Amino acid sequence: MRRSRMIEALLFASEAPLTASDLTRVDETLDEEQIEGILAELKQEYETEERAFGLYEIAGGYQILTRPEYASVLERFDSVPLTNRLSPAALETLAIIAYRQPVGRAEVEEIRGVGAGGVLKTLLERNLVDVVGRGEGLGRPLLYGTTRYFLEHFGFRSLEELPRSDELAVILSEKTTDATEA
Amino acid sequence: MSTQLETDPLLVTLDQFQGPLDLLLHLIRKQDIDIFDIPIARITQQFLDAIADMGRFELERAGEFLEMAATLVRIKAQMLFPRKIDEEPDDPRADLVRRLLEYEHFREVARTLEGAERERVRFHAKGYFEQRPRAVKADVPLETDWSEVWAAVMMLVERFEEPEPGYRVESRPVRLDDKIEHISRLLDELTRVEFTQLVAPWGSRLHAVITLLACLELAKRHALRLRQAAPFAPLWVYRSEEHDAA
User: Fold this and answer.
1) Which of A77, A112, A129 is the last residue of a domain?
2) Parallel, antiparallel, or unpaired for β A61-66 and A53-58?
3) Of A173 and B77, which is predicted with more confidence?
4) A80 and B128 in contact by Cβ < 8 A?
């Protein structure tokens, strides 16, 4: 049995991304580096053969997904809203949590200027954020952080893939930075 | 200012904003106002005009906008106060500006996330079609579905297809209640009976239909259970557990 086919079988059967270290469990003689090599081969193979799916790096792992150009085919066959798209309120709240984590509800509300209770509940229910600790101060407020599923939902490899502050089109001139620090 | 609000770029409905900061930023950016030198009197008036018909909002949302309105009015008042000459010229707008920029920053991040999400939903993992819940057989009390029942009916229709009549006879009416009683009595003695056997003694299409209706009615009352292993397979009528208990 070819090693690459064993890895392929695992990826094929999995509904969530598998990390290289997960995959080493299939064969003790393989280390992560060799696994990464096999993964790169598979990825290349799917591309050259123009398969309807590809191997994608998501949330620190690897997952077989259909290529975006086939999305309309799948949706036409049976339109199932797989991921209910998030509301602007949820996206703003997630943006704050992603950059400021661990962060408490009060800070989120202060930044958005609106209550965050309902949105936080939704994000918790959808497993996009989780309680990661408790803050100092009155009532030791709950602190929130993003989950691994957050990366999966947006198709990010890691949090590093989020735009850095200086990459954003808006603001953050020197004056702004001063104002923020003040 | 209110006339200006009625013109296009400033014509707003509150529903389109995430909150007071979002509305305030909209007013500032749409009019190309320097955020570090906000004309507080003008912006405050525009803000108040925009939230004037807010009555239909739920209390919590209204409160958030009113709080901002109060902040704006306070800043406006502070800017009118004469300052002592030796006092550090502390801009009362500074904190608001900081909040606006911070909010705008995260609003931009949120848009990036939205773009990533829009892209991501075009990639589908295994199990995409599994999202639709499928009825597990054990969950369905009737243990059959409409297509199977229909298949059984069609089979009966074919089986009892009457020959072209050379004459016409009014068939004796079959009463549903009688059928129900007949089946119930039969199931007192038998644990199960095959559907065609229920019809066989009479062998007419009308009997078949009424018998099926009687079975469905009894199944609905949980007095019996219908089982069919596969489409076109024999339809078995089972005595139900409740029937046993009765």
Assistant:
1) A77
2) antiparallel
3) B77
4) yes
A112 to chain B nearest CA, in Å?
A: 6
Whether B183 contacts B211, CB under 8 Å = yes
Find the angle CA(A7)-CA(A80)-CA(A128) to the nearest 5 degrees: 65
Please tell me which of the candidates A80, A153, A169 has its beta carbon nearest to residue B117.
A153
Under an 8 A CB cutoff, do A80 and B129 touch? Answer: yes
Closest CA to B109 of A149, A70, A166: A166
Asked, for residue A107, whether it belongs to a domain, the answer is: yes
Task: Say which of B22, B61, B124 has its CB closest to residue A71.
Answer: B124
* Tokens 């984590």, residue located: A101
Q: How many domains does chain A have?
A: 2
B-chain residues near A114 (CB < 8 A): 18-20, 61, 64
**Tokens matching residue B190:** 């038998």
Answer whether 0.90 is exceeded by the pTM.
no
Third-level CATH fold of B137-163+173-245: Arc Repressor Mutant, subunit A (1.10.10)
Q: What is the ipTM of this complex?
A: 0.83
Provide the domain limits for residue A61: 3-77
A64-87 confidence digits (pLDDT tens): 999 999 988 888 877 665 557 899
Can you point out the beta strands (E) in chain B? 192-194, 224-227, 236-239
- In chain B, what are the domain boundaries? 2-81+90-120, 137-163+173-245
Summarize pLDDT for B54-70 with one digit per residue, the tens: 766 666 778 888 899 99
Does the residue A58 lie in any domain? yes
